[in-house]
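Issue: ligand-bound run for zinc ion - logging full I/O for the record.

Environment: standard queue, default settings, no custom constraints.

Inputs:
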Amino acid sequence: MSLMIRNGEIVAVGSRYKADLYIEDEVVTRIGKDLEAPPNTEVVDATGKLVFPGFIDPHVHIYLPFMATFAKDTHETGSIAALVGGTTTYIEMCCPNRNDDALEGYQLWKSKAEGNSACDYAFHMSVTKYIDETESQLRQIVADGTASFKIFLAYKNFFGVDDAEMYKTLELAKRLGVIVTAHCENAELVARLQQKLLAEGKTGPEWHEPSRPESVEAEGTGRFATFLENTGATGYVVHLSCEKALRAALTAKSRGVKIHVESVLPHFLLDKTYAERPGVEGMKHVMSPPLRAKHNQDVLWDALAMRSIDTVGTDHCPFDTEQKLLGKDSFVNIPNGIPGIEDRVNLLYTYGVKRGRLDLDRFVDSASTRAAKLFGLFPRKGTIAVGSDADLVIYDPDYRGVVSAQSHQVNNDYSGFEGMPIEGRPSVVTVRGKVQVRDGKFVGERGRGKMLKREPSHF
Ligand code: URP
Ligand code: ZN
Ligand code: ZN
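Outputs:
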């Protein structure tokens, strides 16, 4: 069945124009004015709407055993939430821990997603230890189409790698042409500061941020950059939260280090006072790196507008109220993470584009195109062009609503962004030419999503 999108204003990086789009066999085959539609073509009227390339969330956790529990979404609930919010592709962190076999972990993560996601997806493969088998296992995983790695400098004895393991991972990544994403916080300092604060009787969620201060993130970011510099590998800092860490990344970049930066939605919109709320309300806003002092938000918005921050992801990682209460006696036991996959596009559009902090071009770039380019999905994803997958978001800029757990699709009993007004939302979302969402409701085919195979491209 073919699809025609009529009269929309198409917005892709570097171009904005009114045209029709014709889609056949999952891809865009024609773009132009007053295109003829063969009989039996499904027609979507996009008059007054913006037509964006499907948005890409480069940092998502769906299946995640972590901190004595599991993140709440399944691939079915998470992908439907993604689609309702305009995200048509997500990259999930495959995160076996140090005691798990990497290849078995990779197969497990793949099996959880296969046949269950309503949108397309890919993986970043976490390297959580480096032993004799690691090189051959990672070669197999890259050959299977997972051409990006993840390392954690935080989470000592669980996901975290030491400097020797980081070096070996980066050195292999350079040889394989694979980009390495990194969670940059100094694990030793976090462990020491946690112990010190607990010994002082400081157990509430408001102490999470002081246990991982900005300097701890800046150190991790700077160290990652130095290791990139000395291995020649290409890196990508995930969920950067503050000015000090940004400076560390940009200083390295200015001396030629191949380093890219992601920040995530919570750090643009929420500050550390959310985690300082009493009891479980504070716990709901515990994530790592933590929410920061408010002045960092302006720095992040400016850096995003100027392309010093490449992408905006979510680090979607939902834990419900009951799970958060695992940390009621000690902040170190609060499962770290917050949902976001459903709200990223609307909140970025509202508080970025509508508030004049981002132009439309940078909005599309940071929420879709840049990730597609960095992670080997472009031009199949991340743009609107003849031959590209017909992942399209027909966006209603006149919609007015409010983020709320009462109405969201994410499998979680709260939203970290509860009550925030939104000014715009997708009215139709397609995945490879099939309408999956209409007016905030999933109307499509569950399990339609495919794993996206990617080639190494960072030699
Ligand atoms: O708090 C967070 N970020 N939870 C998810 C795991 C991670 O570090 O990305
Ligand atoms: Zn992380
Ligand atoms: Zn994460």
